[in-house]
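Quick one: co-fold with zinc ion.
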Amino acid sequence: MKGALAAMERSDYQTANSIFRNLIDSGLPLPEEMPYFFSETLFQLGQYDNSQNFVNKYLDLTGFTGQNYESATLLKEKLKAPIAQIQACERCDRRGYRLENCTTCLGKKQLEQACSYCKAKTVVGCSRCGATGMIKKVNVFNIVDFFECERCGGKGRLSCPDCEGTGKEISSCKTCLGSGKSPSDNLCTHSEESNQH
Ligand SMILES: [Zn+2]
Ligand SMILES: [Zn+2]
Ligand SMILES: [Zn+2]
Ligand SMILES: [Zn+2]
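Sure, here it is.
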């Protein structure tokens, strides 16, 4: 953790961030004050939601006894404004990352696929006449008579009931869960302009 603190000292929060992350990934028991320092780093990097998670975790774990109790409480206060901004903004997700159009559905929220019922043929075989278009009936003289199937008008086929003859199936996009948006790697500026430009 010393390396991370040194990096924080020289305002190199990117480096501090990666040292902290390695520390977490290592699975070793974490120093008690670490969640506070990590949340401070995340705050500096603009990762407010994550910062809040760690400062809360720190305060949960150490309570009043933590060495950085006061700084942590202060940080929590500082987080309120940016977190409120994120919640009020519709251009980013709850972590503050800019939402872009979903790349799977291109923001359309829905996907068009071939109808799975008719295999995009738009028609299905008529079940009443077994797709022959004719109904067989045995009359009183035991003679087989054929009648045109009323249901399909003798065509033997019906417009697909699932896709109503379009051959397409519309379902909500699974990638973005129908929201049409997916978060990008860019932190949101909460303004009209995307911060990519
Ligand atoms: Zn989508
Ligand atoms: Zn029929
Ligand atoms: Zn169909
Ligand atoms: Zn935003």
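If it helps, The mean pLDDT is 93.
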